[in-house]
Amino acid sequence: MIDPARSFEHVAADYEAARPSYPEEVLDVLPLERDATVLDLGAGTGKLTRVLVRRYRRVIAVEPLDGMRAILERVVPEAESLGGTAEQIPLPDESVDGVFAATAFHWFAHEAAIAEIARVLRPGGTFAVVWNDVVEPSPLPDAYRERLEEIFAEMPPPGGSSDEQFEVIGRGRFGELHETTVEHEQVQTRASTLAFVRSTSPLARRPPDERDELMAELGALLPEGEYVFRMKATMRWAERL
Hints:
Layout (H helix, E strand, L loop, with lengths): L11 H7 L18 E5 L7 H4 L5 E5 L3 H10 L4 E3 L13 E7 L7 H11 E14 L7 H13 L7 H9 L7 E12 H9 L2 H4 L3 H13 L5 E14 L2
Parallel strand pairs: 1-2, 1-4, 2-3, 4-5
Antiparallel strand pairs: 5-7, 6-7
């Protein structure tokens, strides 16, 4: 089994090709000015980073995996890119106005990460976690979805339940946790739909032969065509005390 912490290294191209972006409107509720300095933590290939650079004056992206970071640097050259982790952020104390984690928070060692996030945030600064969910009904065939659910059940993501992950924020130097949602849409081809699945940890963490076998099985269940996904971007955020 591939090390979970490194599993996305070899699927970076799939991640960039198929993972959905985020609607800029989700940022509207945050108490951050446009001249703010913000950090995208666990930035991946820059799916949220490219949204942040359209909104804020200075954006720093921290990503531990070289393959993911190389794509980020190519597609979002406006951002400052650094190697590093959520548990050891390569920035000085109280150096940023906002910290974002997009579909990466469940991979963090939460206690250590929250302490580091509080360290680099200025007092009154904002920490926000953003992720996407598919809104039902899904456009995917029932047989494909059922097999995918079985595969995911065999290897669930780390980090416990969503509520358990967020409880640690309240134990840190943060105030009330707020939540906002924005609906948007993603249009996928058959190829990009399969690339999306290949980029998820239940597939990426498997040995290559096993992964290829499962992808062939899923491919046989997915007809050619266009798949329109209704998405919901959710953001939970809190201010540093």
